[in-house]
Specification:
The protein contains seven helices and seven strands; from the N terminus they run E-E-H-E-H-E-H-H-E-H-H-E-H-E. With 198 residues, the chain is α/β, with parallel strands linked by helices. The protein has a single domain, classed as Aldolase class I (TIM Barrel, Alpha-Beta Barrel), CATH 3.20.20.70. The protein binds iron/sulfur cluster. Iron/sulfur cluster (SF4) binds next to loops.
Amino acid sequence: MQNLFYDYGESLYANLTNKCPNRCEFCVRETADGVGTAGSLFLDREPDAQEAVSELLKRDPKKYKELVFCGYGEPTCTLSVLIETAKKAKELGFKTRLNTNGLGSLVNEASVPELLEGLIDAVSISMNAPSAKEYDDICHSEFGEGAFGAILDFASSCKTHLPKVRFTVVDVIGEEKIEECKRLAGELGVPLFVRRAL
Ligand code: SF4
């Protein structure tokens, strides 16, 4: 049974792909095959849009604060499925949020925030570190040190095309780096949220 949607807190989470261009040292995928009581989130095979939409139709939007595209991989790695599922979610009345590493435009060689206009209400982008080198040291992106600039560009583009955007960092990076991240986010006019490691 594919675990494409699961309840977590007050929200419904969408798990549409295993793929990700990073290998972050703190990634929950390195230590567990699921989150909370959701069961295994590793997908045997990735859903197409039709399968994801038909699973979504089994859920009642009134029960949830929002639908969060998150998953065990990076949601923008399956862009067409993300777009079609978000379209249906908006038709059904869900509020939508995307939790992303901010590398979607690089992965897809397209302006992803523009393609998500009208479909995603809020975006959380993992900043993880205050510089390209430090980011690559912990996230080991297939884009190397080029990843970090792309993430900052992605956030700027989200500001133009989507109603709400924020950066996130995990508290394990320490106070000093968190402060540097805050400064950098502030320069871009994007708020930064510090979250606790799972
Ligand atoms: S970007 Fe997210 S999904 Fe990808 S390795 Fe890092 S923490 Fe895991």
